[in-house]
Structure formats: structure tokens, C-alpha cells
């Protein structure tokens, strides 16, 4: 994993036209090490604070802005008013998110839309699509089952009253 992080970091350094300070390296490597997660700023800070006590929230926010501007990370709004960030490079580009309305779980899926989706938009609408996000809200397996149980419980109470 360490070799993979270094390799990805090298690719990013080539892409960026900024100085990669030690603080930025730590923040970036944390994103790379957690490339399968969607991190809030607070979660990122909790992961980083033990690595370098000098990195504060202001540094994290400034670095996030730089990484966003350079398309290194992606910002998501999953409907809970807390922005979440994920590594935007070295990943499948247009993956989609299934978001549980009850527990907030985010499930990444890909290939929900046909590969020619962007070409069809260009052909039918004359619109050049450079990327997209798809968020589908609903209930994960655990919450769906729990909601059914709650509904049945309430129905049982109503039936006993009537």
C-alpha cells in the first residue's frame, strides 16, 4: 500500500503546479490511503492530527480548496448538509452513489448508466458532457428491514386498539 500511495502521490505532483508542502503531502496521502471512503473535514482532521500536530483545520480547508481546484478530490453533498470529499483521480471516473435516507450509508456503484450515455446527450442535445454525478436516495438493506419491522409493529398496535 505504501508503494501505491507513493506512486499515486508522484502522479499528482506531476499534475499539480503547486508546491507540495509536508502538510499537503500528509493530507493528500490520507485521501489516498482512504480512497474507498467519503471523508468530512472533521474525519480528515481526526486521521491527520496524530501524524502532525501542526496541521490545523485552516490548513486542511486551504489544502482541500487547492485539491478541489486541481480536480484531485471531489466534493459531494449527500443530503446531510455536511460536505464529504473523496479522491477524484486514480478512480473510476463516473461512479454513482446510493444514499440511505435513514442511516446515511453511502454505497458506490458503477455502470448504472450505459457507456454511451454521454455520447447520446451530445447527439440529441448538442451538450458536451465532461462528467456527471448520480445520487440515488432510498434505504439500505438493514434500514429497509428495520422500517418494515417498525411499520408492522405500529400496525399491530393499531390492530390491538381497534
TrEMBL record:
The keyword Ribosomal protein belongs to this UniProt entry's keyword annotation: no
Positions of Zn(2+) binding: 100, 103, 140, 143
Statement: the UniProt record of this protein carries the keyword Zinc: yes
GO molecular function, one term: transcription cis-regulatory region binding
Entries under InterPro entries matching the protein: FUR, Fur_C, WH-like_DNA-bd_sf, WH_DNA-bd_sf
Cofactor note: Binds 1 zinc ion per subunit.
Cofactor (UniProt): Zn(2+)
Gene Ontology BP annotations: negative regulation of DNA-templated transcription; regulation of secondary metabolite biosynthetic process
Coiled-coil stretches noted in the UniProt entry, renumbered to this chain: none
Keywords for this protein: DNA-binding, Metal-binding, Repressor, Transcription, Transcription regulation, Zinc
Pfam family, one: FUR
Xref: PANTHER family: FERRIC UPTAKE REGULATION PROTEIN, ZINC UPTAKE REGULATION PROTEIN
Family membership: Belongs to the Fur family.
Protein's recorded name: Transcriptional repressor
Organism: Vallitalea longa
